[in-house]
Automatic annotation (TrEMBL), chains A, B:
Pyruvate carboxyltransferase domain location: 11-279
A Pfam family this chain is assigned to: HMGL-like
Name assigned to this protein: Hydroxymethylglutaryl-CoA lyase
GO molecular function (one): hydroxymethylglutaryl-CoA lyase activity
Keywords: Lyase, Metal-binding
EC number: 4.1.3.4
Record-stated family: Belongs to the HMG-CoA lyase family.
Amino acid sequence: MNIWDGGRRRVYMQEVGTRDGFQSEGIFVETRDKIALIDMLSKTGMAKIEVTAFVSPQAIPALRDAEIVLREIERNPGVIYTALVPNVRGAERAIDAHADELNLVMSASESHNLSNLRMTRDQSFNALKQVAAIARDAGLPVNISLSCAFGCPMEGDVSASTVLEWAERFVEEIGSRGVTLCDTTGMAYPRQVAELTSQCVERWPQTELTLHFHNTRGMGLANVLAAIDAGANRFDASLGGIGGCPYAPGASGNVCSEEIVHALELMGYDTGVDLDALIAAARCLPPLIGHDTPSQIVKAGRRLDLHPLPADFAAVRERTMQGKLKPKPHYGMNIG
Amino acid sequence: MNIWDGGRRRVYMQEVGTRDGFQSEGIFVETRDKIALIDMLSKTGMAKIEVTAFVSPQAIPALRDAEIVLREIERNPGVIYTALVPNVRGAERAIDAHADELNLVMSASESHNLSNLRMTRDQSFNALKQVAAIARDAGLPVNISLSCAFGCPMEGDVSASTVLEWAERFVEEIGSRGVTLCDTTGMAYPRQVAELTSQCVERWPQTELTLHFHNTRGMGLANVLAAIDAGANRFDASLGGIGGCPYAPGASGNVCSEEIVHALELMGYDTGVDLDALIAAARCLPPLIGHDTPSQIVKAGRRLDLHPLPADFAAVRERTMQGKLKPKPHYGMNIG
């Protein structure tokens, strides 16, 4: 058994498209459409769905309907419905709307945290400690998403020891149930992923470790495989691969849920996901967001979605075998 | 040492953009532009360049200038200049134009070969045997590219034994120097790649084995890594990731040269390629072909191409640390 052969190993998929994807769309997806889409996703076998974010409606108008969406979706008891919360106010709103988990967020990079959140990392940590206390009082688990865990677009490399130090504070001081290492701008590469993942798995075997990759530089699936090889079994991904990167206009966003599931299932991993249902959900996205998605699976279909033989195939074969047809290397299809 | 850590292992890159890419472009790239581009590529460290194809100018007008291009490029003695030839006529033209190698082509799938070339596989083999004899007389090595080695868009799976049988005939009956396993329509997946590659490496350790992947379903880099893990060290790739798939309009084409080199070099492999020079060449493509390429590296830059801090960063940090600035989780950049 090697990494290329899943041998039915279980991998848990977590959908983030309605949060990480929709937050960066230019248009507001109607509340009823969001709810209908999440209801579809709830039936696909996703282990967790990041439904929305409880942030300022002025800051991210695309998610201004967070309460209604989280309240009105149909809950599947097999799915954890999580929501991103940046602060105490967000936590209160998410708890009111019956989130199953609060996903806290700060950056492993000081420059990114300061630029993005206008807090030092220490200030963020202290604020999130309060948020975690509120969650604890409400009986809810928290997860910490560490942005820029594989590099910062301004600072460059972020050392593994820095990432581990912040993860440790959340796991050991706050008792976070889970830690997500976020490759916010697509800087992770497989060797680095394997190293950092091994260290996390070794130090906190009881902590739910999630890897959150963006495919910005085409390394998404390879990073997922490197993480699995190092012991991870839980991945964020976004339907249609939506969710961009402000540093790379036109580049891909989050790793695409249906591409990752398609590849892992072919390799023999057990994602628990119904790929047909997932692709059906992905096909609903373009009318909602007003453009095509980067999903290669939506464009190309699954590996064994076959194409019909040419209409004249039988005649061509017959005449070819009788030597009556001149070879015609027209390469109308593809020669490489 | 594992697959994620290259440990300076040598991997040979072979550029196919001016053949597999340009053949599927709607417009004719000017001859002088082709020559200038290949001259740039010759200085990047590519081990081999598939310059063009000697096919009927009526069939593929995009490559109707094959002779002039192959004759007029500046040869770098460290690079093998190969050309695709489908038949005796093509071989004669390629030899006249001083190709270093002839790249023969047929499909491992009977349906694909019949539909595309209007020959049975046996007929193709016999015709290519003649081509190989001409190459031998001219003192030139041949390579055989087996299309659909990982699946046929009409038949579905193509068994490993079928692929090995055809490879064997070329290696053992014809004495082909190299065999290229082509994933013509992006059906290869890593487990399959690892298995088929191991078998080829084991049976023909002296044969130059190339893997030619398309990224149609997002598995390109993962397939490259699976092949390396199984003993391969030679890959076709296309500048900018150009080269489409007629079965998947809008989907990616060949794996992208600069994405593969970028990832492998980060992981510690030695591709021998100057990534800066390669990216510079990739940036020349859009004006030649009239559209952007799928290259994520051209869009996003290399992993450590950093971005400046915001103009007000120093002031924000100062005031934040003095507690004078209200936290502002506006997430203008990215929170995931």
